[in-house]
């Protein structure tokens, strides 16, 4: 536990010394304030065309930002020789990976909460506040994207030899998970028998953290009817009183499995060194 906390503190210090973090902070704050323009034109409450546009804008920015920072953090350990030095100390690989995840998550969540805090403050001063429930769901949407895509970023950093390789893989995964997902989904499901479509749709949704979080928030905002009959069961369990707890449990399982895979990769590399 102490080793994990030390790695977390080290990652926090490194994160706030990283110019990338401040670049993303300025970018996200600018982005958050731009959302106020949408709110000024059409008050944001529940699910609407404006809300959907805002969700898509967040979906384009946050996963890419998270993939870059997370994957670069691990590849930097390889390129700078920091991991080779740390591996000579009695530090457990799982403590190292978990500490990296917690430290990076803290940096990214601080960027997100600062941006939303600035947006809420400015909207309040201008006398045009965003609906509180919608505001909190947007914050939850952003935090969920960060936490899930950070685990993907660590996996990318584990498999990449350098920053350029991590950059290429990050952009590719972001493109297929966010932009190319509808086309990819239609192409795959269109080749399957009808009885396989719903089970396969569930599996593919779980494999894509962007789609998993997006569906949950859209249903919570009251837009479940636009998803179609294939997602009827999703709408049913999300709207249950225990729906949020089930979703959090799924996210924890997603993150835990990803960290376990990263641990296996780094442990094998450590044993060969």
UniProtKB/TrEMBL annotation:
Keyword Transmembrane helix: yes
TM helices/strands, residue ranges: 20-38, 58-76, 101-126, 132-159, 171-192, 244-266
Phylogenetic classification of the source organism: Bacteria, Bacillati, Bacillota, Bacilli, Bacillales
Pfam families in alphabetical order: ABC2_membrane_2 (PF12679)
Protein name: ABC transporter permease subunit
Keyword line: Membrane, Transmembrane, Transmembrane helix
Originating organism: Paenibacillus cucumis
């Amino acid at each position: 536990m102490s080793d994990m906390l030390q790695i977390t503190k080290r990652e926090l210090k490194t994160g706030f010394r990283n110019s990338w973090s401040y670049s993303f902070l300025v970018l996200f704050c600018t982005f958050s304030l731009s959302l106020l323009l949408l709110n000024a034109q059409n008050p944001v409450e529940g699910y609407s065309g404006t809300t959907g546009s805002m969700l898509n804008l967040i979906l384009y920015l946050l996963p890419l930002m998270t993939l870059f920072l997370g994957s670069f953090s691990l590849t930097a350990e390889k390129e700078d020789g920091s991991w080779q030095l740390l591996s000579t100390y009695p530090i457990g690989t799982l403590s190292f990976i978990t500490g990296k995840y917690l430290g990076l998550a803290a940096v990214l969540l601080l960027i997100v909460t600062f941006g939303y805090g600035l947006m809420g403050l400015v909207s309040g001063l201008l006398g045009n506040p965003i609906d509180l429930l919608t505001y909190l769901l947007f914050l939850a949407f952003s935090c969920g994207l960060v936490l899930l895509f950070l685990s993907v970023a660590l996996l990318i950093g584990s498999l990449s030899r350098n920053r350029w390789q991590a950059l290429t893989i990050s952009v590719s995964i972001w493109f297929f998970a966010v932009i190319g997902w509808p086309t990819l989904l239609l192409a795959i499901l269109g080749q399957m028998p009808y009885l396989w479509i719903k089970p396969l749709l569930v599996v593919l949704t779980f494999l894509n953290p962007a789609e998993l979080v997006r569906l949950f928030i859209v249903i919570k905002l009251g837009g479940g009817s636009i998803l179609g009959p294939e997602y009827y069961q999703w709408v049913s369990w999300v709207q249950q009183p225990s729906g949020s707890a089930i979703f959090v449990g799924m996210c924890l399982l997603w993150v835990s499995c990803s960290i376990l895979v990263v641990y296996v990769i780094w442990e094998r590399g450590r044993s060969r060194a």
